[in-house]
Design a protein that fits this description.
about 140 residues; alpha+beta; four-stranded mixed β-sheet; two-stranded antiparallel sheet; about 25% strand
Length: about 140
C-alpha cells in the first residue's frame, strides 16, 4: 500500500476514533463507494458512463494555453457510532467530477480531447478504488495497538 494511503488512513481513523470514548472496543468498519446523488453540482463516477462535451460547463479562462481542464477528485465521509461497547465506523468514498469547474476550448473540439479528459476522471476513480481496498484491508481491532 502506498505510504500516502497509509498516512491518510491513519489520520482519518485517528480523528474519528478520538471523537468517541476510548472504552468503545472493538472497532468495526463498513467501507463503500457512492455512485448516486441528487445534486447536479458534480457527477459521480460510474463504470461505463463516459463524459460528454456538455459536461464541461465552465468558461475557458482568458490567456490559457490548455485545450481543456477536468476537475475531479476523491471525497471521503466517515461517521462513527458506539453500540454495545463497539465503535462502528462507516466510511463512504466517491469519485466526483465537477462540471461547473471543468472547461474546454470550443475551437479545438474533438474526440481525442474528450478521451484524454475522461482518462483524468478514470485516474481519480482508480485511486478511489485503491483507497477503498486499503481501508478494507485494515484490521481495525489491531490498528491502534
Amino acid at each position: 500500500m502506498p505510504q500516502v494511503f497509509k498516512l491518510l488512513i491513519l489520520l482519518l481513523l485517528v480523528n474519528t476514533v478520538l471523537n468517541y470514548p476510548l472504552q468503545a472496543q472493538p472497532i468495526s468498519a463498513v467501507v463503500s463507494i457512492e455512485t448516486t446523488s441528487p445534486k447536479d453540482s458534480f457527477i459521480f463516477y460510474k463504470e461505463g458512463i463516459r463524459l460528454k462535451f456538455s459536461d464541461f460547463r465552465a468558461a475557458m479562462p482568458q490567456g490559457t494555453n490548455n485545450v481543456a481542464m477536468t476537475y475531479s477528485g476523491i471525497s471521503i465521509a466517515m461517521n462513527g457510532v458506539t453500540k454495545k461497547d463497539q465503535l462502528l465506523l462507516t466510511i463512504k468514498l466517491s469519485t466526483k467530477y465537477y462540471p461547473y469547474k471543468s472547461w474546454f476550448d470550443k475551437n479545438q473540439l474533438d474526440s481525442n480531447v474528450l478521451q484524454h479528459e475522461q482518462r483524468h476522471f478514470d485516474i481519480s476513480a482508480i485511486n478511489t478504488l485503491a483507497l477503498c481496498n486499503a481501508f478494507r484491508r485494515i484490521d481495525c481491532d489491531s490498528f491502534f495497538e
